[in-house]
Amino acid sequence: MQTEVIIVDYGLGNLKSVSRAIQYCGGIPKISSDPNEIRSAQKIILPGVGAFGEGMKRLSEAGLDEAIKSGVKDGANLLGICLGMQMLMDTSEEFGDEFGLGLIKGPVRKINAIGDSGEFHRKVPHIGWSPLQYGPNTSSWTGSPLEAIALGSPVYFVHSFMACPTSETEIIASCNYGGLQISAVINHNKVWGMQFHPEKSGRAGLEMMNKFISMI
Q1: Catalytic residue positions?
Q2: Which are the contacts of 90, defined by CB distance < 8 A and separation ≥ 6?
Q3: Where are the strands (E) in 9-152, listed by range?
Q4: Is the Cα dihedral 9, 146, 200, 132 positive or negative?
């Protein structure tokens, strides 16, 4: 039996590419801006590109923020992608302090181009392919969407800000960008976030999407 996956439409996401990836993996994608559909869904994907504050504003105005939180409370599996991952967090410093969904504790902070020594270390935004590493307290990806992924698999990033979970145990995978450890995959209960774009990350990304669709 195929699994329906609701893709949240709030005007700031790669809806078509995410939808195609789900379909390729054998799921049934449904793009929706209906709070009732999202509230009752078993699988939800929150995509996103753009600014944190604008994303949260659009979710709130459409009643989608509360619908997402209600769905999670009722046991839905939720995957936030790129901006969608960042909006899972408590706050963002992108344009002053903006409030997120608060599903994973911690802030979203800007990636600094300058290191602690005052020297230039990295370009911002972080754009391109970076290999995935284990999180600081992770030694296996068994049971996660990364279960079938080899350590060091490259995935595609486009972002200037990064999620910083309060608990490092919620960082499932990271990547090293110019000496900075960036949270690449985060998790709390059935809530998952991917800072990169799995739908644009080739075979590895599709394996992650496939595993997420099959998770109970």
Answers
A1: 82, 197, 199
A2: 99, 100, 102, 104, 105, 106, 107
A3: 28-32, 43-46, 77-81, 89-92, 98-99, 104-110, 126-131, 133-134
A4: positive
Q: Are 88 and 103 in contact (CB under 8 A)?
A: yes
Instruction: Measure the CA dihedral 29/77/92/199, to 10°.
Output: -40
Cis peptide before 125 (omega within 30 of 0): yes
| Measured distance CA(200)–CA(192) in Å, rounded | 18
Separation between Cα atoms, residue 141 and residue 145, nearest integer Å: 8
pLDDT digits (tens, 9 = 90+) for 94-145: 887 899 999 999 999 999 998 767 777 899 999 999 999 999 999 999 999 9
pLDDT tens-digit profile of 181-198?
Answer: 999 999 999 999 999 999
Class of residue 44 by CB neighbours under 10 A (exposed 0-12, middle 13-18, buried 19+): buried
The Cα 119–Cα 108 span in angstroms is 23
Alpha helices in the chain (DSSP H): 15-24, 35-39, 52-61, 64-73, 83-86, 202-214
Structure tokens at 195: 């800072």
Looking at CATH, the fold of the domain delimited by 4-214 is given as Rossmann fold (3.40.50)
Q: Which tokens go with 124? A: 């911002």
Domain ranges of the chain: 4-214
